[in-house]
Amino acid sequence: MVRSLAQWTKTLSFPSRLSPNRNSKDCSTLASPVPPPTPPRNKTHNNCATSRSSSSTVSSSHSSSANSNSSPTPGSNNNNNNMPITELEQIIYPGPDPKQAIMGSLVFCIHHKQGCKWSDELRKLKGHLNACKHDATQCPNKCGAQIPRVMMTDHLQYTCTMRRTRCEFCQSEFSGAGLEEHNGSCGQEPVYCEAKCGQRILRGRMSLHKSKDCAKRLRRCAHCQREFSADTLPLHAAQCPRAPLACPQRCDAGPIARAELEAHLRDECTSLAVSCSFKEAGCRFKGPRQMLDAHLESSAAAHLSLMVALSSRQGQQIQMLKSAVSKLSINYTGTLLWKITDWSAKMSEARGKDGLELISPPFYTSQYGYKLQASMFLNGNGPGENTHVSVYIKVLPGEYDALLKWPFSHSITFTLFEQGAQSGQGGVAESFVPDPTWENFQRPSNEPDQLGFGFPRFISHELLHSRPFIKADTVFLRVKVDPSKIVAV
């Protein structure tokens, strides 16, 4: 890009008018220092001047002034714009050749703001611009773009709309604009499956892949008609309740649905070996189902004997369980609270039947202590017959008698409670300390007629009904062993 001398004069931005009061020594150029001034020709000018126009000729007003041979006289105040360009050059660049001085001025590349660091004489600028990498040139593909040389390679390769390039997948040739339209639709481009199975498939084969090969395509179970993805269908097939299976006993029945196989083996399969229905009684028969009826008919007597033996064993087990339950219900605290219900009916029965005795549950003085049992005669016994309630205590054979100290010597207290007393629990209480010489407190034997010790006149029938001992046809009697008298080993 070459500019004329007049254009570069304008580029240097000289003042449009001469300064009348400035000396020529104050003038300077863009290039190297100005050489010593030479005497002016024909006229003496004390002021510096610059050319307003960038052309080699002066304006029309100047030309007319020059043609009329009108020249300023010394001391006159004529406008310096009428001065010919040669004289202006002589004033600005005094010396033998002003044009050479201008062309030798130091300049920078016009693209120095873009990063070009070139600087040299003005005469070399044109040659530099022909090779400057920041100078814009016409795209050789004639796309109409002006591209700096430094970006031309990238432009031709990537952005030029008139470039010729090939698709990296199908190798078809396109222009730049055509390739942008082709991208995203090339049938040979590998893309990930739209069903997210994880495979990369050529775009042109995507439809075929989704219908035949994709692991995430939906497939229908042939037995239950439910839909599953292709990768989970084998797992379902191994558990499908409608999948047909052969009988594991190889009977004559056809394929059986998995959900119905258990019922077939239990109720229908003729080849399955079944046990006799009296198996729990001890029958050891086991054979095909069709032979079971014949076995039951022929073994009726044997089955009856087995059932009798089973019933006997079960009876023994029941007794053992009852014994275990009774042991669990035994009181080991040394205190028995005896609740006697249906008092009126039992009292009527006692008055009509001599010697009727009520027996309490047994209890222990401690976990490994003496075993005791209370008894009561509602209509009295001995001296209290028909007038009093009699209470007694018996020492029973216990599991730990061999470890205990005999005779039994703990004190016993009987208490009949009043029910609903407002000021504390009232009642009737009697206690005694066993006589060590009396036979009842020695180590008991297994005889069932063991005698007890107590109070034949514990409470009279009159007192029993005059105070609230009976409520809701129920009476409460407490039998307590004094723990301070424990002498167990």
UniProtKB/TrEMBL annotation:
Zinc finger residue extent: TRAF-type: 128-180, 182-233, 236-292
MF terms (GO), sorted A to Z: tumor necrosis factor receptor binding; ubiquitin protein ligase binding; zinc ion binding
Compositional bias per record (Polar residues), positions renumbered to this chain: 13-31
Ranges where the MATH domain occurs: 333-481
Compartments where located: Cytoplasm
Domain of life: Eukaryota
Protein name: TNF receptor-associated factor 4
